[in-house]
Amino acid sequence: MQKHAITRLVSLVIAASLVLAACGSGDTDSDDTTTTASGETGATDAPTQPGEPVRGISDDNVVSVGAWIAESGPLAVVANIANAARLRFDQANDEGGVNGYTFDFTSIDDQSDPAQTVNAARELWENDEVFALVHPYGSGGMTAVEDYLRENDVPTLFPFADSRILFSEEEGAPDNAYGFVPFYGDTIRLMLEYAVEEQGIETLAVLHSNDVLGEAGPDGASAAAPDLGLEIVEEIGYDAGETNFAPLGRRVAESDADALLVWSFSGSTQVIEAALESGYEGLLVLHDGYRGGFFLNSLTALPYDLEGRAITNVWWTPVTESDSEVQEYVDLFNAAYPEGDVNLGQSGWIAASLFLDAVDQTTADGSELTWPALKATLDSWTDEAIAGSRGINYTADRVGATQGKVRLFEDGGWVDATDWVTYARYTE
Question: Are residues 91 and 175 in the same domain?
Answer without folding.
Answer: yes
